[in-house]
From TrEMBL:
Superkingdom in the source lineage: Bacteria
Classification lineage: Bacteria, Bacillati, Bacillota, Bacilli, Bacillales
Enzyme type, top EC level: oxidoreductase
Keyword Oxidoreductase carried by entry: yes
Domain Flavodoxin-like fold: 1-186
Protein name per Swiss-Prot or TrEMBL: NAD(P)H-dependent oxidoreductase
């Protein structure tokens, strides 16, 4: 299986980094081909400037975006790993989606809405939070974040969301709890 991992955390030695490492270890056991796009390490430019916006409609796609799109085309499954910041994804990841998942590449406008152009690909989202589950679920923030990513992005692009995992309260979790979370993620990878 060809697996693309989109990693969006500024610290590789964070818990998100531990998740990345655990996923790579499991994918190697499964003999998956793996490519990692660490958005901070590659210096991805997330800002969609006016000239970029216009170029997309003129089919003059910038070279950095063509490169990222080639990774998405190569992949059979896409795994996103990121922390929750202000009830959403980090700006660098939002910018990645804005620039890379473009109209004409990831989706196209049709008479009744959109048609996904990345059909046949599976998606897995691993999202950490600083807040505990009992703080986020009653306010429906978890559901809002899940809907925005799973339906507002993946479904529009034709990607089948296999799972959207929230790892709650990471900031205050002890070592044993974090190890349990990593085991759960390893188990999910085994089921892909």
């Amino acid at each position: 299986m060809k697996t693309l991992i989109i990693f969006a955390h500024p610290k590789l030695d964070s818990f998100n980094g531990a998740i990345l490492e655990a996923i790579i270890d499991e994918l190697k056991v499964l003999q998956s081909e793996i490519r990692v796009r660490d958005l901070y390490r590659i210096g991805f430019q997330p800002v969609l400037h006016e000239d970029n916006y216009s170029e997309f409609y003129q089919t003059k796609i910038p070279a950095d975006i063509l490169e990222e799109q080639s990774y998405l085309l190569w992949a059979e499954q896409i795994i996103f790993i990121f922390p929750t910041w202000w009830s959403g994804m980090p700006a660098i990841l939002k910018g990645y989606i804005d620039r890379v998942f473009s109209n004409g590449f990831a989706f196209r406008m049709i008479k009744n809405g959109t048609e996904g152009l990345l059909k046949g690909k599976k998606g897995l989202i691993i999202q950490t939070t600083g807040q505990p589950e009992q703080k986020l679920k009653p306010s429906q923030l978890t559901m809002a974040m899940e809907t925005a990513m799973d339906y507002g992005i993946f479904q529009i692009c034709g990607i089948d969301t296999v799972s959207h995992q929230f790892l709650y309260g990471v900031t205050l979790s002890d070592h044993a709890t974090k190890q349990r979370m990593l085991r759960e993620i390893r188990d999910i990878i085994q089921l892909l």
